Amino acid sequence: MEAPISTPNYGTLDFANHTALVTGCNRGIGFALVKALLQTPIKKVYATARNLAAMPDLQHEKLEVLALDITDPASVKRAADIANDVSLLINNAGIATTYGFSNSNNQDLNADMATNYFGTLNVIQTFLPALTASSQQQVPAVIANVVTIGAFANLPVLGSYCAAKAALFSASQGLRIELENTPIQVHTINPGPIDTAMAKDFNGDKTSPEDAANAILQGLKAGTQDIFPDPASQAMFAVWQGNYKDLEAMFSQMNQQAG
Ligand SMILES: NC(=O)c1ccc[n+]([C@@H]2O[C@H](COP(=O)([O-])OP(=O)(O)OC[C@H]3O[C@@H](n4cnc5c(N)ncnc54)[C@H](OP(=O)(O)O)[C@@H]3O)[C@@H](O)[C@H]2O)c1
């Protein structure tokens, strides 16, 4: 494992003070995050999925399962009305299409934006009253957005996905500045390849969702603003920090190999 990347920190976080809600929990990183959160002294975890029938039965006294489709404002509002004690919101739900930019139409390009950008922003806006209320009792409330290292340079085989995640990274930075005089902190989580359905076509080394989830919780506990939860994302971020054009060149090579 590479040395952890150092990015600016908030104070340390004590899970014992928090009630968490995670989006997109029926599989992949979201499911691993729920299992990892339940290993901490957390007060409660709301595990949400757009299709409850697909949610594995975890049976835990601190767990409540809720329906939440991040692209459906009515569904988000229903969940926010129930989970009005949330203080740690992890926006994990996402999709990845394989649209590039030369041939795709607006409808194709919009799919990634509708979920990864607008859907996530709608969740944040709808849960902000609950986060504000809980931050007045237990400092701080937390918004953690699962982005990707592909927000830092575009990989055209996942072109519109990377663009939508870059928009989400930018919105996360903007929110962090907008909220900096409040007790609500904003984190980004920027994985490299993680061994889930989303990365099934990637043939290189992948980190397990369980290892990624543990690293994400370690990053949140340490207060790390921008979390790189696996060796690949840590190495790629180090390249970007050295010279952002070098990460673009690395992704160009990866794109040629994938093509
Ligand atoms: N795997 C990687 O290599 C990787 C790398 C960087 C970042 N990420 C990010 O990590 C997050 C989790 O992805 P994953 O790797 O765990 O992929 P995954 O196995 O495909 O899981 C994606 C999850 O998001 C849910 N989802 C999709 N659209 C939704 C919606 N409108 N409302 C609610 N839930 C929705 C899916 O639910 P359904 O089962 O109903 O579709 C599923 O539970 C995503 O934000 C992804 O972009 C993944």
From TrEMBL:
GO-annotated molecular function = oxidoreductase activity
Q: Does the keyword Endoplasmic reticulum apply?
A: no
Q: Which UniProt keywords apply?
A: Oxidoreductase
Q: Which InterPro entries match?
A: NAD(P)-bd_dom_sf (IPR036291), SDR_fam (IPR002347)
Entry annotated with the keyword Oxidoreductase: yes
Q: What PANTHER family does the record tag this protein with? A: NADPH-DEPENDENT 1-ACYLDIHYDROXYACETONE PHOSPHATE REDUCTASE (PTHR44169:SF6)
Q: Which family does it belong to?
A: Belongs to the short-chain dehydrogenases/reductases (SDR) family.
Q: What is this protein called?
A: Short-chain dehydrogenase
Organism placement in taxonomy: Bacteria, Pseudomonadati, Pseudomonadota, Gammaproteobacteria, Cellvibrionales
